[in-house]
Specification:
globular, 2 domains, alpha/beta, Aspartate Aminotransferase, domain 2, seven-stranded mixed beta sheet, four-stranded antiparallel beta sheet, Aspartate Aminotransferase, domain 1
Length: 400
């Protein structure tokens, strides 16, 4: 059976691949601690579920095609809230609602890139970004980060060619968890502007940023839409993962081009999900604040318990939002170690090789821990289990 090169040469979905490691493993005496995926596993709050149920029963139009760029009221609400939060000129004409943030990314890239073009992605990268670039014939140019997991603008500048079209950043970062300083985002934006590129910032996890106030000032520029695209997801803040609701915030001219892509692949975003997102934005600010506080407390628990591992040669490279990104001390490469940890410790997490180019050796030493779905007690158990793993150690790395 023949397959097209675009899909055949793209790696398999990592989370689905990791779930196959559970086959045949007995967790009766030691329940699995699953820190492989960041998506919320609990349903939305009951009040929000009631809104969805009422809309499904009583709003006939919720079952029909809607506007390609999303419900006008939701576009207007997000524009108003973002204008206040970022102190920028953002109107409904800047906002497109998409079927999840991944689709927002794909739509944005469809307006920027042709086959053979290049996009800079800091490593470790978000694997779905890499997958889409591979499937569309766009070259993902790895932008290596240091031990702080922050990309360097000078290093980015050295990678720009006449085929470069965009720089993509995720902040707070997936998989690294780090929150990019506003000065770094400004430097990357100015680099993109000076080279006629676009900076895309995926802010899926903005609701769980530990910092107060706006995370950057990019929306304050008079013509911010010329070289800046913002992506967002309603899935994490309101637990709407299955409803697939995201947002693309850009210039009206670019949104008009993205509309062609969106009309072709989905026609319109899920109407029930949009109704839920709108109600959530208007009514659940206090509840989202509580969710943020809980995530920040789990982040603190990661940092409090990590000495159990650092004493054994582990290193915490990044921690924030939903993720901790770590370096392990074992001789096994991470793509062999991660399946072994399912059997040895009852822990499911993802190897750094899923977030790195195949020729980058650092991925073999790294692991991602998605801690949003484990409470403080399970975080303590997680580190106790990892600290108890007895496997051959790698030689100490040369950090000269």
């Amino acid at each position: 059976m023949a397959f097209t090169p675009r899909t055949a040469t793209t790696f398999s979905p990592p989370v689905m691949e990791a779930r196959r490691w559970l086959d045949g493993v007995d967790f009766t005496d030691r329940p699995l601690i699953n820190v492989s995926q960041a998506a919320p596993v609990d349903p939305p709050p009951e009040a929000l579920r009631q809104v969805i149920a009422d809309a499904a029963l009583n709003q006939a139009e919720a079952h029909l095609y809607g506007p390609v760029l999303g419900l006008p009221d939701l576009r207007a609400e997000l524009a108003a809230q973002w204008a206040a939060a970022y102190d920028g000129e953002i109107g409904p004409e800047n906002v497109g609602i998409t079927s999840g943030c991944n689709q927002a990314f794909c739509a944005a890239l469809s307006t920027l890139c042709a086959e053979g073009d290049e996009v800079l992605l800091p490593t470790p990268w978000y694997f779905n970004h890499k997958m889409w670039l591979d499937m569309t014939g766009v070259t993902a140019v790895p932008l290596a980060t240091g031990d702080d997991l922050l990309p360097d603008p000078d290093a980015a500048a050295a990678l720009i060619t006449d085929r470069t079209r965009a720089i993509v950043l995720v902040s707070p970062n997936n998989p690294g968890g780090v929150e990019y300083p506003a000065t770094l985002l400004r430097a990357m934006h100015d680099l993109a502007r000076d080279h006629g590129l676009v900076l895309i910032v995926d802010e899926t996890y903005r609701d769980f940023d530990a910092r107060d106030g706006r995370p950057h000032e990019l929306f304050t520029d008079a013509n911010w839409g010329d070289h800046f695209i913002h992506l967002y997801s309603f899935s994490k803040a309101y637990r709407l993962t299955g409803h697939r609701v995201g947002a693309l915030v850009t210039s009206p001219a670019r949104l008009a081009q993205a509309e062609k892509f969106l009309d072709t692949v989905a026609i319109c975003p899920n109407q029930l999900g949009q109704i839920a997102a709108l109600w959530g934005m208007r009514n659940l600010a206090q509840w989202v604040g509580g969710e943020r506080a809980e995530i920040l407390d789990r982040r603190a628990a990661i940092e409090e318990h990590f000495p159990k591992l650092s004493d054994k040669g582990w290193r915490l490279l990044g921690c924030g939002a939903y993720f901790a990104y770590v370096e392990h001390p074992f001789a096994l490469p991470s793509d062999d170690l991660a399946p072994a940890l399912v059997r040895e410790a009852g822990v499911l997490l993802l190897p750094g090789t899923m977030f790195m180019p195949g020729d980058d050796p650092s991925g073999a030493r790294q692991l991602r821990i998605a801690f949003a779905n484990v409470d403080r007690a399970d975080i303590a158990r997680l580190f106790d289990r990892l600290a108890g793993v007895s496997l051959p150690l790698a030689p100490p790395p040369d950090r000269a």
